[in-house]
Amino acid sequence: MKSLKRLLSALPYELRFAGEDVSISGIYDDSRRVRPGGLFVAYKGVETDGHRFIGNAIDNGAVAIVGEAEISPDGVPYIRVPDGREALALLAAAWFDFPASKLDLIGVTGTDGKTTTSTLIFNILDAWGKKVGLISTVEAILGDGAQPTGLHTTTPPALEIQEYLHRMVGNGVEAAVIEATSHGLAQRRLDGCEFDVAVVTNVTHEHLDFHKTDEQYVAAKRRLFDELLVGGGTAVLNVDDRSYRLFQPLPRARIVTYGLDAPADFTAEEVSWGPQGLSMKVISPDGEFPVASTLVGRFNVYNILAAVAAAAGMGAPREAIAEGVRKTRGVPGRMEVIDRGQPFTAIVDFAHTPNALENALAAIRSMTKGRVIAVFGSAGERDREKRRLMGIAAGRLADFVVITAEDPRREPLDAIMEEIAAGCRESGMKQERDFVLVPDRWEAIKTACEMAREGDAVIVCGKGHEQSMCFGTTEYPWDDRIALAEVLEGRKESRFRLPTSSARKRD
Known about the structure:
single chain; alpha/beta; Udp-n-acetylmuramoylalanyl-d-glutamate--2,6- Diaminopimelate Ligase, Chain: A, domain 1; UDP-N-acetylmuramoyl-L-alanine:D-glutamate ligase; Protein-Tyrosine Phosphatase, Chain A; eight-stranded mixed β-sheet; six-stranded mixed β-sheet; 25 strands; 33% helix; 23% strand
């Protein structure tokens, strides 16, 4: 239990609250979860307005309300704030006794490569002997085991973030790495966190459905550096990416740079990679040292350099850096090889942006003697412009493309696939000769594998580690890695049943 006035003292604005203090048993932003003695925080969300549910929260036992609207609910104190999301995050931090202040906190943002870079930093710090936590779009490692972070998760909600950090502190964790998505930053889920190191991988085309403009997307990423990075903290920037120009200047931060083309604090020479991994010589301000990894592709060279720069900036020695990179065996669903004895390469990758798809296909192209066959779609109710751009990228770098479903949600699947197909045509591909549209994702994977011959490569992109596929508003169980394995094992039909599958139609 904490007093309401004590919690409110964490908010950075003058509040009109002259009522009697009350004891708070918990903080909630979902009225259905409110328990007696709870504090309910209402804000206007993307699709719903929490103020509509204040009555429900009170009925469930809320003893105080924080909200943005100018209202006066009956029977309980109401505290009006300018930003409900910000208030929620700061109140959550106060509820858990500001756990971020007790940890060395590293944030990683960017369009692509966040999860891999976060995992690399985690493993380097672990090899250094630190007890480390991790919050990524794949999992949360809290010092007492790991747990998944959701189906289509970006950065977890503010209450979960603060609870995770609180558990880390209780488990003796010294440093934590957090994957900071643009949604999470824009929605202030990370407010109340004080970052000691902030890393950006790249900023390319993505999420304009949510951010509306490129300027707003960049501004969301910059929040990690402008507002959440502690004064004197370290900003790790990619000199070869446009974000380097967009993120300058950062007067409150010590800037460390990495890259391959422009002069940088951390760079690499003698870079080589193949199907089994990559090797390179890292050039750092403190000298040169070799690094080897099972990761592949030029984009992973950048991810490794970002992680090396971040860890070295914290004082990690070369030996720990090299060991941490070496033991990073890849992230689930990121360039993950599925081998069932087939004579061609089969890979699942999370690439769901034009830049990520281009990088993945380029990496596969550099390692494949035969054809590159790509399977992918694009999410419904998300950034529409990227669909055409992904079609163009695939048209340039793949020999054959199978366009299919990927979380169409409430949009017509045929229309989404046609927008991708338009990009393929724009790149010079012809339908049936160079690409086909197969709505059912399992059948699409099967089509690609049946085409593949010895020396070819099939890469299934877009879902990666995710465990579901959304049609309408329903999440259906799905896993690209299992589906690809089923096809390679010769199964006649999948264990999964999607609305597009012939098996479901028979039912």
